[in-house]
């Protein structure tokens, strides 16, 4: 089951991006094969990246990793997919594009 991100405010997105590790996670999720190599279950492109791989690469506890991913999800930057006992995350490229466009418009960037 895949859940899409809720409709976030620009403020929630900016707050999510204030943390360097959360920004790195988003960078890693942009190119999952290069960032994570291989995962046993699930396809990077279809399913996303398993939380355990993100946790291992980030060097964080499971609870901190889950909290960070929850913040990114509530901000609308990632989608979540549950497969059995596993949880997978992917970047929500359309939402990221909308945010960048919105921010550009608000700042007067053409």
Strand order of the largest sheet: 1-3-4-2
Decide which structural class fits the backbone.
alpha+beta
Describe the largest sheet: 4 strands, antiparallel
The end-to-end span amounts to 38 Å
User: How many runs of DSSP E, i.e. beta strands?
Assistant: 4
The averaged pLDDT comes out at 89
Q: Enumerate the spans where pLDDT stays under 50 for 5 or more consecutive residues.
A: none
Give the strand content.
5-15%
Which overall shape is indicated by the principal axes computed on the Cα atoms? globular
Q: Percent range for helical residues?
A: 40-55%
What series of H and E elements makes up the topology? Answer: EHHHEHHEEH
Radius of gyration: 14 Å
Number of separate helices: 6
Give a verbal description of the structure.
Strands 1-3-4-2 form a 4-stranded antiparallel sheet. The protein has helices spanning 10-16, 20-30, 32-36, 51-58, 62-74, 93-107; strands at residues 2-3, 49-50, 78-83, 86-91. The model has no long low-confidence stretch (mean pLDDT 89). The chain has 6 helices and 4 strands; from the N terminus they run E-H-H-H-E-H-H-E-E-H. The longest helix has 15 residues, at 93-107.
